Amino acid sequence: MRPGPAPVTALLVFVVTLAACSSGAAPSAALSSGAAPSAAPGGITIYAAASLSAVLAQAKSAYQAANPGAALTVSTDSSSALETKIEQGAPADVFLSADTANPQKLVAMGLAAGDPTKFADNLLTVIVPTANPAAVQTPADLARSGVKVIAAGDTVPIAKYSAQLVANLARQPGYPADFVAKYTANIVSREDNVAAVVSKIELGEGDAGIVYMTDGRTSKKVMTIPVPDAANVPATYAGVVVKTSANQPAAQAFLTWLAGPDGQAILASFGFLPPS
């Protein structure tokens, strides 16, 4: 007998077996790499009010750093516009609104997975360009002849809060009885969202506008004119998980985090208040 064939045969068997194991693993790896981005663990799309743009940029970084595998995509606009898009089937996972009415609307239509979660409050302020060409000194000047006011569209939450503020101001000592009418007559444009109002004031295309206090704090190109505490209007922000979300656990995890200590700390650093 000639020695040698047995070791060679054994080696061939080992190589064939190893190759078979390797080829068996390949299909699952290919399927994993070919998965849709929306199906990735933690991958969610957040529709958020325009006034949350700056704070969510920081919140996104903090959340993703604390939760490996999380992937947040943030899209901002007016709350009313985003709510309409969700009604029409837009692929959002979380909806963060500058009010409670729009999230509640989704709940009423069966488009939300659970009740709204309140996560922040805000207050209102008046902003003017840093040069303040119209010499606006108090909110009463918003009704002065010739002052160009930039406002938001009627369905935008900031417009509703502004209307309440203006009505409250009209009842303050020193404000004219026709303050509401004169303020309304001074509105020269109505924008799609509060970010657009801020932008126009920054560019000097208007003399003044009513926005959220956090917007006035964030922009370096405007000055704020204080509003009397007795007239100010609290704005409560709320969020919901969208029922059609393909990743409800990840969506709920983010909303819970935002309403929790870590999210609240970031919101507070931008001037937001705890939810009422």
Number of distinct helices: 10
pLDDT average, as an integer? 88
- Helix content range of the residues, please? 40-55%
CATH architecture of the largest domain: 3-Layer(aba) Sandwich
Overall 3D geometry?
elongated
Extended strand count: 10
Number of domains: 2
Q: Unreliable segments (pLDDT under 50, ≥5 consecutive)?
A: 1-40
Quick tags:
single chain; 10 strands; D-Maltodextrin-Binding Protein, domain 2; alpha/beta; 276 residues; five-stranded mixed sheet; 20% strand
Question: What does this molecule look like?
Answer:
The protein is α/β, with parallel strands linked by helices. The chain folds into 2 domains: 38-121 and 236-269, Periplasmic binding protein-like II (D-Maltodextrin-Binding Protein, domain 2, 3-Layer(aba) Sandwich); 124-225, D-Maltodextrin-Binding Protein, domain 2 (3-Layer(aba) Sandwich). The protein is 42% helix and 20% strand. Strands 2-1-3-10-4 form a 5-stranded mixed sheet, with helices on both faces. Helix 3 (79-87) runs parallel beside helix 4 (101-108).
